[in-house]
Amino acid sequence: MSRMSRRALLGSMAAASVPGLLTACSTGKDDGDTANAGKKLAAWPAYRPATGAKPDLAPTDAGVQPGYTSYPAALPASVKRTPGDGSTIRVMSVTFGTPPKGRADNRYWQAVEKALGVKVEFTVIPTDDYQKKMATVMADDPDALPDILNVFSGFTLPREAQFVQRRAEDLTPFLSGQAALEYPNLANIPGHAWRDMGRIGGRIYGVPLERPLPGSTLWLNQGVFAGAGMREGWTSEDFAAVAGRATKGRTYALGAGTGSVFGNAVHAAAHGAPSGWAVDGSGVFRPNYTDERYRAAIAYQAGLRKRGLYHPDAASMSTSDLTTLFLNGTVGSMQNGFGSYQTLYPDAEGLMTPAPALPYSVGAAAGGIVAARRSFGYTVVKKAKKERVQLLLRVLDFLAAPFGTKEWELVHHGVEGTHFTRGADGAPRATRLGEVENVTNLPFRYLAEGPQVLFVPGRPEVVRAVHAWQEKVVPVAIRDASLGLQSTTRTTQGTTLKALMDDATTAVIAGRSPMSAYDEAVRTWRARGGDRMADELAKEHAAAS
To answer: What Cα–Cα distance (Å) separates residue 382 from each residue in 37, 92, 131, 456?
Structure first.
């Protein structure tokens, strides 16, 4: 829930762009059998929800998040004792922020270390460098691995599952079933996060970072779109007409960043196409690429682009630059993850009012939204003696403290009077030092984190708005049926095959290639591994059912 300044936000949003290819690397002569089919499957961790502050806006079992319009008045502790033993642990995580100040000059770093009871050697990896750095980590001597490693879900790492199985500690004995109750904050992580993280070879190797159900979201400049005639219950024809009226001179209704394929995920969902993979009643897996609704979404986007409704640099613009253009009104919309609301609303204050778009319908079919992977990556620990593994899990348990606890406040906001003061509503407000020393720049939150809630300090109207939006769209979220399942072909060739299809789709929307070129790319995708992935996923799905 931490807030970063507008300057920091605009300097670090490149994370949403899709990276270049990572050369596939083997983790050894025998990559191992990572499939779950044919294995005895470890029981998922027992779920025991934490007791805490009651939300002002109720969650639903379907996936609407709890909303807090005010900050809890009383903050209980969620751990009984200091987790560490004074030893040093080495950790590594992706970062969306700017490089942190060193430990000696970083009072936030020192405060979290003190609370954890360990000395933390923290290596942060900027998103632009993540794949390259991880290739080095995966190929390195096992002894060089950090004690705690964040495996970020925003990238496809070739042979990721094989690497984890070979190098990381099997956490099944520590977390499977009732064993998880030894770590109450980890047991508070809902089952959907563990399932979307998935097992490897039937075993549990990581701790997931839980995330909300809505995924890629079309964020609108509400004033621009409302002024152009936006209305609830709009159709694809209405959307195109509104976007046309919102495009004038050098202002464009639609913005997109490099790798987003002109915001294809949002439009494909509105057309009702699968989000990745769909599975039918007989257990057969079918990819979005071969679905006529996905093909129709591409043709629809090509029409929008041909009319000049996208910014001219939509296929090559960095997400940082796109965010700047969105905030200054040059583009009226942009695709980003739903969770970006936490910084988007505060940073847009005084400039414009953002709003998540409701999906348009196509013909008689209601539009859908993208359902996210409920695990924003996962954390693995280095193989070690039992006592050392337990210490590392206690550290992760502390970091996974739920919203409304003392531990959550420390990790997400630092020390009161140093990194934050309290507003009239009791919610933390970052000091000048807190805008530099924080969980964004030193991302403890990407090692472990409690379940996400809806909260923006001092902005109850934002919480009400996004909660109301979730109530409308969660029922039409389209889930990728492959989430949490293993596929050897996908881990070895998925990056290359995805790039093939992204390039083909981008070329059609941009007007560089006809639709027949897309159809040829689909045939190539299937022949080079797509059909094998479908077979492997079907076997995994059957084993997990």
So the answer is: 26, 11, 20, 35
